[in-house]
Amino acid sequence: MEKLNIALIGAGFMGKAHTVAFSNMPKFFWPAPAMPVFKTICDIVPEIAEDSKKRFGFEKSCTDWRNIVNDPEIDVVSVCTPNDSHAEISIAALKANKHVICEKPIANTIENAKAMADAAEEVKSKNIITMCAYQYRRIPAVVLAKKFIEEGSIGEILNVRATYLQSWSADPASPLSWRFQKEIAGAGTLGDIATHVIDLSQYLAGNISEVVSNIKTYIDERPVQEGGVDLLGTVKIDSDAKKAPVDVDDEASFLVKFESGAVGSIEATRNAWGRNNFITIEVHGTEGSLFFNYERLNELQVCFAKDPDDRRGFKTIYTGPAHFYGEVTWNIPGMNIGYGELKTIEIYEFVKSIIEGRQPSTSFDVAYQISKVCDAVVRSFESGRWEKC
Ligand code: SOE
């Protein structure tokens, strides 16, 4: 079995998610397309780099990502750093003929997103694979929704309503991590989570062509945290701490038009008390409707117009062995998968793409298209008009 030497840059929350996924991949998917070898982990904080080496089982650690890009032994680079370094690292890695999986959003600016898509295009002919980590489209229930749509079970799509609501930044005492700084993150909620539901909407209904938007910042300054570690609201900082301005959005809502003629809406905020990872998508077609909610991620609700008037309504399908990769996760519907299995499915698809020499469905060009929608959302907020993507 082929081996792939893995290097991971950025040992925080996403570094942990990628490592768990690489390590679980052959446990679920056997025979694996290739065996990951945990070569090098990089973090700019020396103690975190060294600690993660031991914790995650890497052979080496470093604090400068260039060591990884310049290492001829490395086949695959996982980019799990804050958004402002995605472009520089990914482009350098691609130029060094490494396969790259990069966390979302692909970049902090539309220019960087384009540069990354261009760099990926340049090495495509050498079978160098890129993936941006839009994992939610790989949830079995979402894949089932796509199957219903493709089979024509809900007819022609009329409307897509999508939301991504979280609460971790609703508390003004949640610290000012990089996610609230435009220079690093590029955008707030729009880049961080609206991008996921843009991806889901486009996966199910095709590309979005135009948007009209509203953007809002609710909490315009936050307490400064020591160190660069992203605490995602899990730690609160007391009210007399030094504060600094927030220059990104807390909420982004927009109406969308799809190339197909369908319409819809997308809303995202990280300031919705009671909503945790509330990704919902409801698709209405001429012959029926579909509804998915990540907080019940092993379920898809479907309603068919053809059912008799006295029986029509949403029914719930529990995903399991009969569904996408269900045969390799757990054996009984209702045993359920979670975030860890989902990231594992994503890494499996990435590694399989490398071995088969074909781009996965969330390659850098697809991620760039999502950034174009975000760019149009910002332009529309400034112009007050519909803007093309
Ligand atoms: C924080 O909002 C976050 O970690 C996002 O950055 C992820 O993309 C999302 O999947 C979970 O929430």
Task: Describe the structure in your own words.
With 389 residues, the protein is an alpha/beta fold. It has two domains: 3-135, NAD(P)-binding Rossmann-like Domain (Rossmann fold, 3-Layer(aba) Sandwich); 140-296 and 298-335, Dihydrodipicolinate Reductase, domain 2 (2-Layer Sandwich). It is 32% helix and 24% strand. The chain has ten helices and 17 strands. A nine-stranded mixed sheet has the order 16-15-14-13-7-12-11-8-17. The chain has a six-stranded parallel sheet with strand order 3-2-1-4-5-6, with helices on both faces. Strands 9-10 form a two-stranded antiparallel sheet. β4, α4 (86-95) and β5 (99-102) form a beta-alpha-beta unit. The longest helix is centred in the C-terminal third of the chain and has 20 residues, at 364-383. It is globular and about 65 Å long. The chain starts with a strand and ends with a strand. The model has no long low-confidence stretch (mean pLDDT 96). Bound molecules: alpha-L-sorbopyranose. Alpha-L-sorbopyranose is lined by residues 104, 166, 192-193, 232, 270.
